[in-house]
Amino acid sequence: MYDPLLLPELREMLLENDARAMREFCEVFHAGVIAETLDALSNEEVWRVLSQSPLQRQVEIFEYFNLARQVELVTCLDKPHLSALLEVMAPDDRVDLIKNMDQAQVELLMPLIAQAERSDIRKLLSYPEHSAGSIMTTEYASLREDMTVLDALGQLRSQAPNRETIYYLYVLDDARHLHGFVSLRKLILARPETLVTEMMDRDVISVRVDEDQEVVAKKMARYDFIAMPVVDDQGRLVGIITHDDVLDVLQQEATEDVHRMGGVEPLQDAYLSTPFVTLAWKRGIWLVLLLVAGLGTAELLERFDETTKRFAWLVRFLPLVLASGGNAGSQSATLVIRALALGDMGRHVQYRILRREVATGMALGAVMASLAFCFALIDIPMLNASILAGAVALVVMLGTVNGTLLPMALRSLGMDPAIMSNPLIASLSDMLGVMIYYNLALFAVGNTL
Amino acid sequence: MYDPLLLPELREMLLENDARAMREFCEVFHAGVIAETLDALSNEEVWRVLSQSPLQRQVEIFEYFNLARQVELVTCLDKPHLSALLEVMAPDDRVDLIKNMDQAQVELLMPLIAQAERSDIRKLLSYPEHSAGSIMTTEYASLREDMTVLDALGQLRSQAPNRETIYYLYVLDDARHLHGFVSLRKLILARPETLVTEMMDRDVISVRVDEDQEVVAKKMARYDFIAMPVVDDQGRLVGIITHDDVLDVLQQEATEDVHRMGGVEPLQDAYLSTPFVTLAWKRGIWLVLLLVAGLGTAELLERFDETTKRFAWLVRFLPLVLASGGNAGSQSATLVIRALALGDMGRHVQYRILRREVATGMALGAVMASLAFCFALIDIPMLNASILAGAVALVVMLGTVNGTLLPMALRSLGMDPAIMSNPLIASLSDMLGVMIYYNLALFAVGNTL
Predict the structure, then answer these.
(1) The whole model's pTM is what?
(2) Which value does ipTM take for this structure?
(3) Looking at beta carbons, which residues of chain B come within 8 Å of A375?
(4) Cα(B73)–Cα(B392) distance, rounded to whole angstroms?
(5) Tens digits of per-residue pLDDT, B362-403?
(6) CA-based nearest residue in chain B for residue A272
(7) Which of residues 88-147 of A touch B (CB under 8 A)?
(8) CB distance from A374 to chain B under 8 Å?
(9) Which domains are assigned to chain B?
(10) With a CB-CB cutoff of 8 Å, which residues 142-171 of chain B face chain A?
(11) Cβ(B339)–Cβ(B350) under 8 Å?
């Protein structure tokens, strides 16, 4: 397990240039632990340590660095070493790295890579971002229907060393059409003379290569798969997606939703890896949009200048009224957006959600209005406190309804409901709040301008 | 794969009471697909179909129903059938179900369950909510060090049928101390006469039974494990956590964060499974807290009543100024909270984040102020527009700093940074905004009250 004492030891090995100790270090620990420890060293130091171990092991450890560090690390490798490294890497990790490398450098490297690996790279690069094809690996284990269990185990032994997972074996014909699968567990348990065709599962759950990665990840999560086969439009197996990729996709999608809900265009990379200008831009476009909404609210308030002058107490509670609507709306939007993200919700379910939200909005509106009324009575007369309470009740109710309906509407238009961010809901609520609050006040004092 | 035509077929089988067809249906499809299709039927109908297949298969399918439906389904089973079902279920799924069942019913059932399973249930029930112990299963495959590969495969064949995963084999001594592990892949590839002790990995990454499930899930995600061993405080293996549980935990933790950020106390269950009163309460406590903050803002504004009356134009842009600060702050809080949730961030990294946020805040403040100035000039004189622009610049900058520092501060106090919800950041920003805006106005017109 990760041990904070490893790093000082490692530094000493480097200082003493102790090749044997470094080789041993790369052998005994888990590749992930080694990468974590090495992460604190400079690029050159990392390679001085890694170079002591065989290429296969170097790759295992290298794949545990995060992508940004991988990109940095490859810049200080010579071309023969780098191309050898790329040849051995898992196809999906390799393509991720290549996508993020300097493209001029990649073009220089490609001729050094073996033909088969090169065409694999070109193929995987051709799949669009966020598709199943873009996250799959081409290293799967396969069988033929007419094999016996004994043959199958023999073939598996020859395939296993360079297959990402061997826990599902896919049954293919000569044209690579996917006919079924056998789990390794089942294979181990079967009698040696059994034919694959007798024991394979024929109801294979697979995904199309052009399907969205989020759909794929949800499917895998639902069926608890370790690997999911990916087929082309003719039902031929082209790759598999493994359980660790699903985790990454689900994390990535959750991050996107969270960012959208906070009023930030989703970042492609980790926060600290995103360039400053990109970060400012992804926030700025939303802030400007929200500023325009704020100008709309100003426009509305201008019509009430006279009212403001006559009833200055109204202004005191203006932020409270607007915030109450915004907060209740943000809550509803948050609940609805997350519920939509986690489950497949038909019309019927959406209707149930709306009914609940209306009821919740009414209950919360009543409670908030009563509290606001009691507190306000300390400062302002009964009539004014009643106006305030009425406004709070209405904005909380309407905020709740908006926070529920707007994400649902976006979704039924085929857009991401998370675009209805908390700040956007709050802005819309501001306009509505001003209208309700001032008109209620004018109505209550029997006056219209 | 899921087929919408399955349901009508199934209904016909039920109508014709076609036992053979129902048994076949339960055999040929993936258990997950069968559960999805059955989910549309009544409890009685589900059991009429499932009863046609052997108990083992019934359980496989049953485990794919969501927990709420499982609880409903067991209410209409007789005691012998239900206790048999529980005996066969995977230990972790079984305990989840039992926790959610009517406790009086559980007490009546327990005597019917075999002694070994019963003590397993009591044991798993004893681990606290959200601990590694509460999500682990006790069905793992194990080996002894002095076995040969051939012995190991033999033992595996006898253990496999009732082990949740056999893809990692844990090497234990007689007291169940965990000494190492062997992956099934390695075992398959090894020569039959090799001793387990020669080939096992000794650097086992494991978790303690009382560790938090979120920590466990993150560790498994980082090392791409299919299963993670769980040990007690004496290093004895007590269970394993499998990859599918990690997905559930990470989804659950992401949902909690999202809810907090939207100003809702995290729900324990899915939105529609949460009782109305609970839902209202989990929102209400935050709304009331935010209402109190709003009263604070009102208190501040009261001191500026005179200013409000003299400069009614100030009120027009008040929501805009307050919203700008709140929005910029929400963005920062969102980015920081998510970054903290995804990575382990030391002091050094937090300092880098803060520096970036200050720079971003200044850039965004300048842009927003310029835009607000230009737009406002249409309506109000140059001096007033300058006051507005100055206030916008300051609230955006301070909002950004607050949105960054407050989550970090909570974290360093050992609390969940996500408590700094968007609405809360906006409320704090409101108070600050009022102070800045009004004081700036008073200062600019050379007046103090």
Answers:
(1) 0.79
(2) 0.78
(3) 291, 295
(4) 58
(5) 999 999 999 999 999 988 899 999 999 999 999 999 999 999
(6) B353
(7) none
(8) no
(9) 6-126 (1.25.60.10), 135-243 (3.10.580.10), 271-444 (1.10.357.20)
(10) 153, 156-157, 160-161, 166-167
(11) no
